[in-house]
Amino acid sequence: ARWPGGGQKVNLLRPVLEEWRESSDVIVMFVDSYDVIFTAGEADILAKFQDFNSRVVFSAEPFCWPDSSLVSEYPRVGLGKRFLCSGGFIGYAPEMYAMVADRAVGDQDDDQLYYTLIYLDLEKREKLDIRLDHRAHIFQNLNGAKDEVELKFLDNATYAHNIIYDTRAAVYHGNGGSKMYLNSLGNYIPATWTKEAGCLACDSLSLPEDRAQWPSVLLAVFIEVPTPFLPEMLERLVQLDYPREKISLWVHNAAPYHEALVSAWFEVVSGDYSSSSYTGSEQGWDEPTARVMAMKHAISQSYDFMFAVDSVAMLDHAHTLWRLIESNRNVIAPLLVRPHRMFSNFWGDIASNGFYARSNDYQLIVEGERRGVWNVPFISAAILFKGAWLQSQSDDLPSYASTDWDSDIMFSQWMRGKGHFMYVSNLHEYGHLINADSYNTTHLHNDMYQIFDNRVDWERKYIHENWSRNLDSDVIIGQPCPDVYWYPLISETFAKELVEEMEHFGEWSGGGNTDERIAGGYENVPTRDIHMTQVGFQEHWLELIKHYIVPVQIKVYPGYYSRGFAALNFVVKYWPEGQPSLRPHHDSSTFTTNVALSRAGIDHEGGGCRFLRYNCSVVDTKVGWTLMHPGRLTHFHEGLLTTKGTRYIMVSFIDP
Q1: How many other CB atoms are there within 10 angstroms of residue 136's CB atom?
Q2: Which of these, 447, 655, 653, lies nearest to 532 by C-alpha position?
Q3: Positions of the chain with pLDDT under 70
Q4: What's the pLDDT score for residue 4?
Q5: Which pTM value belongs to this model?
Q6: Is 185 helix (H, G, I), strand (E, B) or coil?
Q7: DSSP letter string over 365-413?
Q8: What is the 3-state secondary structure of 570-625?
């Protein structure tokens, strides 16, 4: 019994033991019911108990609780824990009954103090032959002993070991503030996870072959902050491999920045689902309100599951939803990690200040070295709730509101405080986290600026889908003119957005020789252009050069290893009424890249680049493809006449 008080446990135990009060050969074991793990069977426990050669054995701990004034009355011990803990004890029935019948105790009284006073009474201690398990032979209390207990891994077995006393207890007790550590141990013991077999407690249910029989799901989407790559995230939700007629869509958008996008998306997809509901930013719901409202809706409609997905959860794998359902847990999250980082949507431990602390196995779980379904103290970003569990909490729903804590921290605090387990699964790959922490929304196309914070998603959207093939040893890079190479670099989306970003900025240079943007203020061969520095994209483009241009340069110009630096990176605009062409010139670079941003024959007619020394021209440019050529001495070149429309190119003078 956990409530109302420890004395209740004594009063409940008394009538049970009375039945065996005369049975001197009956051994009774008592443990707290909600925070213990057994790692041994009856025979091993009895053998350990009989080794004590005593009638009663209590567990021991390092704290004199609840009355620290009694410290001096305890017998001293040479090695081991000195103080009695009532969370576990074992003994012969007559002595056990004599203890619980010693005196009256109220349900609200403290059971540990009750037994402590019996133990400290020398006459009673000797009469009942009571000993403490000072070195955790039978009982290992974890409070104050976390650093003493380590997991040991054999190929086909995992066990907990007290490294101070060299003992392996039969019962592990998460007393006091050690319950999170007990839960962590429970991920491995008893017989829960081994190096050889992996997860032994990940048995799951199997959904019916007939998808019409699959459970109903409320897909609750939370867009609480401006988030990069939101269109792609929403598309992943649409692509979940789950019958649409079994899903009801519920969307909350608190970000005015995304209002047009999300409402348009909802209008397109909502009819594909069993039912749908959208609450936009104008409604004014805060995040805690929205999350509780979604839960209430799930309860009122009796959905079998509710899948709460935040805008930072990029669910790359369509199987995510049904895999989580088959995990058969009340509350579970798929492991999601920021690519190439240790930041994930779960915590392995909680620090004393209530924030993240790294557990011993955190990195192993994040990196997939250990696979399983893990009991953890914090989850976020994407959480599947069983409908039956939500129904059971209908009168006491999880709390998200706080003036001091984020909603996800508040939720996990509530779960831990109520004794509800949370799980994270890395049995399969599910997706990754988007980093929205420093998302700048001051530009026209803000995702374009995410090369540093969200490289994987940025590359997927903005680098040409065939770029990586440039590095394959069996691929020969095209060479339309001598020592001029031509290969796919950026996506059509990038080309389009870059042009739109420049036109949105709008401050094209005048095309004269005077140019205060460059050192010295004089441009010998001027163009109508906008520099990357003007739109805050210089460092981003330099990162692109280092990671996506330099590797190809090393392949086609062997023996030269570029620094990947370019002081001048700019978009040039050619059109008949402005600047239609560019006179012959050399570039102030070791090599130059010239990326086509517009479609020859569609967006413009004419244009191209002619290399005079070789009388060789490249005119049929492809959007997103770059020309790469030496800048000085050998490749005197000119920009050919654009006769119609507007031609845009992105130019970099690399290694000036």
Answers
A1: 28
A2: 653
A3: 1-4
A4: 55
A5: 0.94
A6: helix
A7: HHTTSS-SEEEESEE-SEEEEEHHHHHHTTTSPPP---SSS-HHHHHHH
A8: EEEEECCCCCCCEEEECCCCCEEEEEECCCECCCEEECCEEEHHHCEEECCCCCCE
